[in-house]
Amino acid sequence: MDFESNSWIGERLCYYPRLFGGVMLTAALLGVSTSYLTGISAPTLPHFLPKLSIFRKKKRGKKRIRVYMDGCFDLMHYGHANAIRQAKELGDELIVGVVSDEEIVANKGPPVLCMEERLALISGLKWVDEVIANAPYAITEDFMNRLFTEHKIDYIIHGDDPCLLPDGTDAYALAKKAGRYKQIKRTEGVSSTDIVGRILSSAKSITQNRSNSSLPSKDDNMNHVHAEEKMSKIDHISSFLPTSRRIVQFSNGKGPGPNARVVYIDGAFDLFHAGHVEILQSARQLGDFLLVGVYTDETISELRGHQYPLMNLHERSLSVLACRYVDEVIIGAPWEVTHDMVTTFNISVVVHGTVSERNSSTGEEHDPYAVPKNMGIFRVIESPKDITTTSVAQRIIANHEIYVKRNNKKEASEKKYYAEKQYVSGD
């Protein structure tokens, strides 16, 4: 422990030890006497003596804990976001490594999203402080030393689900051996494998419905279509169990200031992707507070077909809430922006991007933005990326056999995890 001495008092201690001792003894006797003689107060030590401390401890700032988490983060979902949130709670600064495309191909098969898209998603999360691109899939000794020396990492974080290399070894064995490993709880009810399964089920439904058009009876055909709709919904139904606590964990918990310029943007935000992140960033730059409306499942199904949405309302809302550019979310926003909405939320401007999904059933006869247009507060902004939920899903559908094979392998390991899992406290 480092101390610094008061040079003035140090010199006098050397040259006048008896004088100093006498002063201190007198002060002590006077202090003792007051415990017996009420009404008489002991004089304070002379102002030229230090206040009860000859030595003062040097002030040091508390060391900030830096933690590291890595992953593929392909088909980004709220489970990834919750893992990032938990990791941040174990330190002061969170550095996230995004595994390279080549490493993903070698260890898991082809990624759905390229490195640029995955970097945009991770950088857009509110809990992330730094990002390391092209991180290795396995924590090698060389890379671990780089984390400790160059990036000043204190701990390496991963979920309680196993992460195995192709040879069956633990990808985080070295970090555990070094005593620099911490574990978080996996978010139940979602995984990239699960989402790929939902997309494949939806694709199967679309194909079957198209082939049914050759059936001789129109009524039989429609009945078959409705049956297939019901089965496809069952095939990719979400097992996520939303709680109010989880929503609070993701929320900023702050409203707009009295004179804040509130920007409103709405949409499905299904299969949250890099295009969503960048349009939200553009919208946020137009004001002080970004309010995002997330459509209901029923609205999306009516607009785009029964196979949508791929993610349910609460899953989509959490993905939006996790974005650093978003301040608040309307969970289950109406399709039409009404005058009452504008007044209730004190909306200054309503924005819409140039890239969006086609709406199959409504056409152009009803404009959901008629009110803000009449009020003069509607604005179209250029979408930074030409990407949609459908275009991302089509990447998987185009490589159907590859992803079916990959999913079959992953689903077996996930079933084993759920069969053997134990509760990990704190999430």
UniProtKB/TrEMBL annotation:
<protein>
    <recommendedName>
        <fullName>Ethanolamine-phosphate cytidylyltransferase</fullName>
        <ecNumber>2.7.7.14</ecNumber>
    </recommendedName>
</protein>
<keyword id="KW-1208">Phospholipid metabolism</keyword>
<dbReference type="GO" id="GO:0006646">
    <property type="term" value="P:phosphatidylethanolamine biosynthetic process"/>
</dbReference>
<dbReference type="InterPro" id="IPR044608">
    <property type="entry name" value="Ect1/PCYT2"/>
</dbReference>
<keyword id="KW-0443">Lipid metabolism</keyword>
<dbReference type="InterPro" id="IPR004821">
    <property type="entry name" value="Cyt_trans-like"/>
</dbReference>
<feature type="domain" description="Cytidyltransferase-like">
    <location>
        <begin position="68"/>
        <end position="197"/>
    </location>
</feature>
<feature type="transmembrane region" description="Helical">
    <location>
        <begin position="20"/>
        <end position="49"/>
    </location>
</feature>
<dbReference type="GO" id="GO:0004306">
    <property type="term" value="F:ethanolamine-phosphate cytidylyltransferase activity"/>
</dbReference>
<keyword id="KW-0548">Nucleotidyltransferase</keyword>
<feature type="domain" description="Cytidyltransferase-like">
    <location>
        <begin position="264"/>
        <end position="358"/>
    </location>
</feature>
<dbReference type="GO" id="GO:0005737">
    <property type="term" value="C:cytoplasm"/>
</dbReference>
<comment type="similarity">
    <text>Belongs to the cytidylyltransferase family.</text>
</comment>
<keyword id="KW-0472">Membrane</keyword>
<keyword id="KW-0808">Transferase</keyword>
<keyword id="KW-0812">Transmembrane</keyword>
<dbReference type="InterPro" id="IPR041723">
    <property type="entry name" value="CCT"/>
</dbReference>
<dbReference type="Pfam" id="PF01467">
    <property type="entry name" value="CTP_transf_like"/>
</dbReference>
<keyword id="KW-1133">Transmembrane helix</keyword>
<comment type="pathway">
    <text>Lipid metabolism.</text>
</comment>
<keyword id="KW-0594">Phospholipid biosynthesis</keyword>
<keyword id="KW-0444">Lipid biosynthesis</keyword>
<dbReference type="InterPro" id="IPR014729">
    <property type="entry name" value="Rossmann-like_a/b/a_fold"/>
</dbReference>
<comment type="pathway">
    <text>Phospholipid metabolism; phosphatidylethanolamine biosynthesis; phosphatidylethanolamine from ethanolamine: step 2/3.</text>
</comment>
